[in-house]
Amino acid sequence: METMRERFVSTTQSLLGSDPRLAVVLADISADAFEPARRQYPRRVINVGIREQLMISVAAGLALEGLRPVVHSYTPFLIERPYEQIKLDLCHQDVGAVLVSIGASYDWAAGGRTHQAPGDVALLDALPGWTVHVPGHPEEVETLLRAALPGRDRVYLRLSLQTNAAPHSLVPGRFEVVRRGRRGTVLAVGPMLDGVLSAVAGQDLTVLYAATVRPFDAKTLLATLSEPSIILVEPFLEGTSAHAVTSALTHLPHRLLSVGVGRAELRRYGTAQEHEAAHGLDARGLRERITSFLNA
Q: Which of 95, 99, 215, 265 is the most buried (most CB within 10 A)?
């Protein structure tokens, strides 16, 4: 199956010809994939080399000149390393860009801690004005990217090798109601949906699917709520969206279980699937935690 990264590259390259505002800024990652586009649009496809802080600063400069920069790299090199430039060059100057990461929390677990970044969305949560998309399928990448490019705002698109089996017809910014139940609500973010559905098979639960987590769609959560027991399943740092759930339900006594990547560092790197199991994010782990929460 085509990967999210491949769909991002092909979609972006096709849009460079029709949108003169669009520019791509790289720091070596995926430079080979964008080389045909760089030859065709050398002033709008820029590789700064392994200088991630400069990558963000160049994007901010392009945005100040009226372009729509798409900035792309591995998650820790896109969010963690140039965080000060994101804070100052983009947020403080109040200019927009579309940041597109690959690698997610631990897609290449064997690459070591340098290539793992489960805290990326939590970091962006500390800054104002970000829309955060977490697609669960390559087709959703194209939908969310095309929706983001016409604007001038700040958008983060988090790609992963982990995917759901089928795409969903997204309305960017809205949760999708996958099914309805009476014992509580599970909010599954991006590629966690298939595992969640397997884990809660036979349980009387509402399942919501979120491919956009910021802004947080409190309206759909409230409109579909039956029992105020919420289970939040995210493919990044555990509890990242807990404050958003709590804010949405401020007026209502509720219980919340946050499931995600644990804070403890796993020093035996293994595979992405082994990390998923170690953090209790595979179907078995999810089933155990959700059942225990519901029966408590």
A: 99
Neighbouring CB atoms inside 10 A of 201's CB total 9
Give the list of residues 6+ apart from residue 94 with CB closer than 8 angstroms, or none.
129
Same fold, 4-158 and 176-295: yes
Residue-wise pLDDT tens for the chain (296 aa)? Answer: 899 999 999 999 999 999 999 999 999 999 999 999 999 999 999 999 999 999 999 999 999 999 999 999 999 999 999 999 999 999 999 999 999 999 999 999 999 999 999 999 999 999 999 999 999 999 999 999 999 999 999 999 999 999 999 999 999 999 999 999 999 999 999 999 999 999 999 999 999 999 999 999 999 999 999 999 999 999 999 999 999 999 999 999 999 999 999 999 999 889 999 999 999 999 999 999 999 999 98
Tell me the fold of 4-158: Rossmann fold (3.40.50)
The answer to whether the beta carbons of residues 117 and 103 sit under 8 Å apart is yes
Q: Would you kindly state where each structural domain of the chain is located, as residue ranges?
A: 4-158, 176-295
pTM above 0.90, yes or no: yes
Q: Are 138 and 10 in contact (CB under 8 A)?
A: no
| CATH class of the domain comprising 176-295 | alpha beta
